[in-house]
Design a protein that fits this description.
The chain has 25 helices and 20 strands. Helix 2 runs parallel beside helix 3 (102-109). The chain is globular and about 105 Å long. It has 633 residues and is α/β, with parallel strands linked by helices. The protein binds (S)-3-Hydroxyhexanoyl-CoA.
Length: 633
């Protein structure tokens, strides 16, 4: 064929193997090779069965994403899928590993699907702003019905071979590592007429329960109208599946093709594919090419607060042994609860059983004894965001951590060089800045202070990769990357609030724009105390010309730090993470303050100095930070 598709004839079976490393993407050369292999196998009278398989860990990761946006070259994937489905000889998809997007659609167009037990099967096109465009939206519902098909296409997460079998889209799961030889008997049985060759387009199991399919379409559409405002491809996916239920196959296929073309042209597709490649490029650090990361099995997290708890969960989920160190039993108990509540929520949502939680927590060691960190390969500090507090912790870490252990700070803003300077090993200290909630958010900033050892840097990246994060290298500069951007975003949100827009309407506008949450919801989620500490730290060096909004400080002074204290910009009922609008917060924002009043009068006096004159009393009160209440004292 060519060097990316190999055809081997074994008696009556034609084995067509995709060998296009690293992920067997269906590039133009692969498509050409597949088409030719199918044609040759059909023409050869000795061949009775065709079997398509992949190589390595992948059946195929789908269409070659690099080709999107370039002129499309024939044969296109839908043509190949149609040719396979129309084959007069039985075609097997031997799914040897991951089958995603167009890769799984290739499998769906075969007449039989056998998967190895470790295979993962999914339709992740939604993450790229696309839809399954090689017949997937038309073929899959015919086998598994609208609800399951939509779940796969709309959450984009792969399912296991076992789940595929239970759904009915996989015919057999093979436990043996030798998928081809283990499938031989099944393939030969089809030549003896034991298993009928039914093209997927003619299957109807999934179409039987019309009422359930109709309900599923309505429910998924409602859900996405709430959570996916502004997104394009989810609604196109739902429309395509609806077509599959109500129109002949060819018509549905044409509709899918046109919808796919619209998605392909959309700026959302362009942005998401840019992000796909950008995320992968971030991991490629030139100076780390030859560097091996250090061993990483035991992690110590210092601090059991929101961040410490989240980091501990991320590390436990990555299979590490995690020690959490706190100053006292009360702090430790809070930390332990912060970890356990994540797993309790998984249990309540049916994502794991109590036994699984027990198994994970066997690797979790809470302690108030700093000496216990001597075993750790890496220590991540996540204590209060104040330089002196951090320095004190790093002095202790330097005393107890073993030589060769990596020392990391989860600071959001502070200078890592300064933190590292209190240790005897500054070249082993780096910043690992997680974002809240640390067990969920993908971004991990790897902050590089001067003189950092490349091995330590490589170990930071290895941790990020192991946790499934997107690790991004950052200079050791104020706010690193994310918080630098966030700084401008937050300031503008604050200005708008002070100028009279309710924070709740600002959040709503930002959500309507397409963000999952607004800025004030985000402050509450991250914890108001962190930003407050940072603002206080910068108070003496802030340019006096800069506008400063004090409203968030007023909330923090009341101990309202957001979700963790049950109150911030929003009010949270006991145990709830859904914020309710809080009239008291709006009252605080109306509390204009004498300083602002004097500033306004002075500004207006530029135009009309005769009328606008602040009284001496007001000026004195503003200078002394007094309120009218103070006059009564
Ligand atoms: C589709 O199929 C549309 C159809 O419905 C209709 C068509 C008409 N193409 O992530 P990794 C590269 S849309 C080209 O680091 P992992 C990736 O850039 C597609 N290249 O490895 C990287 O390159 P490099 C639907 C691809 O093991 C290298 O492979 N499919 C593709 O952590 C290794 O990737 C998807 O959306 C591709 N399709 O994860 C699947 N995929 O080394 C997208 C990967 O130069 N891919 N590369 O940086 C993934 O989810 C993950 O890459 C995968 C492997 C799970 C496959």
């Amino acid at each position: 064929m060519n060097d990316v598709v190999v055809l081997n004839k074994k008696e009556t079976i034609a084995l067509i193997q995709i060998q296009n490393s690293p992920v067997n993407a269906l590039s133009h050369a692969v498509r050409q090779g597949l088409m030719e292999a199918v044609r040759e196998s059909l023409e050869d009278p000795a061949i009775k069965v065709l079997a398509i398989t992949g190589s390595g860990k992948f059946f195929s990761a789908g269409a070659d994403i690099q080709e999107f946006g370039k002129p499309s070259l024939e044969p296109q994937l839908p043509q190949i899928c149609n040719a396979i489905e129309s084959c007069s000889k039985p075609v097997f998809a031997l799914i040897n590993g991951t089958a995603l997007g167009g890769g799984f659609e290739l499998g769906l167009s075969a007449h039989f699907r056998v998967a190895t037990v470790s295979a993962k099967i999914g339709l992740p096109e939604i993450h790229l702003g696309l839809l399954p465009g090689s017949g997937g939206t038309q073929r899959l519902p015919r086998i598994i019905g609208a609800d399951k098909a939509l779940k796969m296409m709309l959450n984009g997460q792969p399912v296991s071979a076992g789940e595929g079998l239970a759904y009915g889209m996989i015919d057999r799961v093979e436990e043996s590592g030798e998928l081809i030889s283990a499938s031989m008997d099944f393939m030969l049985e089809t030549t003896a007429g034991k298993h009928p060759r039914i093209p997927t387009r003619e299957r109807t199991e999934g179409l039987q329960d019309e009422a359930a399919n109709h309900v599923a379409i309505g429910e998924h559409r409602n859900t996405w109208q709430k959570k996916g405002k502004g997104l394009y491809s989810p609604f196109q996916i739902i429309d395509c599946v609806e077509k599959a239920l109500s129109t002949p196959f060819e018509e549905g296929l044409k509709y899918e093709r046109e919808s796919f073309a619209r998605c392909l042209e959309s700026p959302q597709r362009k942005g998401l594919i840019h992000a796909f490649f950008a995320e992968r490029r971030c991991r490629k650090i030139p100076e780390l090419r030859e560097i091996e990361p250090r061993k990483l099995e035991r992690l110590a997290v210092i601090g059991g607060g929101t961040m410490g708890g989240g980091i501990a969960v991320a590390a436990l989920d990555a299979g590490l042994e995690v020690m959490m160190v706190e100053r006292d039993e009360a702090g430790l108990e809070k930390g332990r609860l912060n970890v356990e509540k994540v797993y309790d929520r998984h249990i309540s949502k049916g994502r794991m059983g109590p036994e699984d939680k027990k198994e994970v927590l066997e690797r979790f060691i809470p302690s108030t004894d700093f000496e216990r960190i001597t075993d750790a390969d890496m220590v991540i500090e996540a204590v209060f965001e104040e330089m002196e507090v951090k320095k004190e912790v790093f002095r202790i870490l330097d005393q107890y951590a073993r030589q060769g252990a990596v020392l990391a700070s989860n600071t959001s803003y502070l200078d890592i060089d300064e933190i590292a300077s209190v240790t005897s090993r500054p070249e082993e200290v780096l910043g690992l800045h997680f974002f809240s909630p640390a067990n969920i958010m993908k971004l991990l900033e790897i902050v590089v202070p001067s003189g950092l050892s490349n091995e330590v840097l490589a170990t930071g990246f290895a941790l990020g990769n192991r946790m499934g994060k997107v690790p991004v290298r950052s200079a050791n500069s104020e706010g690193f990357i994310g918080n630098r951007i966030l700084g401008a975003y937050s300031k503008v949100a604050g200005y708008m609030m002070e100028d009279g827009t309710s924070p709740y309407r600002i959040d709503e506008a930002v959500r309507d724009f397409g963000y999952p949450i607004g800025p004030f919801q985000m402050f509450d989620l991250a914890g108001g105390d962190i930003g407050w500490a940072n603002r206080k730290r910068k108070a003496t060096t802030r340019d006096p010309r800069e506008r400063y909004v004090e409203i968030a400080d007023r909330l923090c002074e009341r101990g309202w730090f957001g979700q963790k204290t049950g109150r911030g910009f929003y009010f949270y009922e006991e145990g709830s993470r859904i914020g309710i609008e809080d009239p008291e917060v709006l009252d605080i924002i109306d509390m204009y303050g004498i300083r602002k009043i004097v500033e306004d009068i002075e500004e207006f006096s530029v135009e009309d100095p005769f009328f606008w004159k602040p009284s001496e009393l007001l000026k004195t009160m503003a200078a002394q930070g007094q309120t009218f209440e103070d006059l009564n004292l």
